[in-house]
Amino acid sequence: MKPTRKNGTKKRRGRPATGQGVQIGTRWPEGTVAAIDAWAKEQRDEPPRSEAIRRLVELGLGKSARASAVTPTAKASSDRAREMAGNTIDKLKDAKASPDDQVSRKRRLVKGPEEFQNIRRDRPNRK
């Protein structure tokens, strides 16, 4: 006796479909693959090679990078900018103000005006 199927569809042979989109197979030089792998390891979430290639293509085409793809070099450059701003503010400080006032003024200046804090890309939006 033949087994019956409830929905009447015939089972297809082979591996099930994994996703949408066009599959592109290319050959890459070993140096390029090593550079892609090195870039992926620098990312916070260490994406697999295929995801790293997708992100690099998006960056190359000028599309915005994903929020989770903040590179360590971007973090280091923002830290360096904050440090340079702090040093400049220290040179211009008001000697007559109390140390507490000097610290609070410096913090306000480094954070930036309140109107611009919501549009900064390196910080999450505040409610």
From TrEMBL:
Residues 1-15 have a biased composition (Basic residues). Residues 90-104, 111-127 have a biased composition (Basic and acidic residues). Residues 1-29, 62-127 are annotated as: Disordered. It comes from the Bacteria. Keywords: Plasmid. This is Ribbon-helix-helix protein CopG domain-containing protein. It comes from Bradyrhizobium barranii. The lineage of its organism: Bacteria, Pseudomonadati, Pseudomonadota, Alphaproteobacteria, Hyphomicrobiales.
